[in-house]
Amino acid sequence: MSEWIYPKELAEGRVEGFPKISLSTQVEARRHRKITYTKTGKHVVYKREWVEEWLKNNIRKAQPKVS
Asked: Are 50 and 36 in contact, with CB atoms under 8 Å apart?
């Protein structure tokens, strides 16, 4: 398994154990400094621990549907 996770892999659901996270959601999380990331050249990358921490801190219960 790769040490780094690229945003496109996360958006396409190719990372085992993680849900699909859209690119726009990732951009907003980076913009508001909610997820840790680094840049290698011009590419944004995450470590597995950083994504796990972000998901743990931002999971909310689903809202029940109103009938």
From this structure: yes
Distance CA 58, CA 53 (A): 9
The residue type found at 28 is E
Give the residue among 4, 42, 45 at the shortest CA–CA distance from 26: 45
| pLDDT in the model for residue 66 | 85
∠ CA 61-62-66, nearest 5°, is 135
Strand, coil or helix: 67: coil
The model's pLDDT over 11-60, given as tens digits with 9 standing for 90+, comes to 999 999 999 999 999 999 999 999 999 999 999 999 999 999 999 998 88
How many Cβ atoms are within 10 Å of 21's Cβ, its own excluded? 19
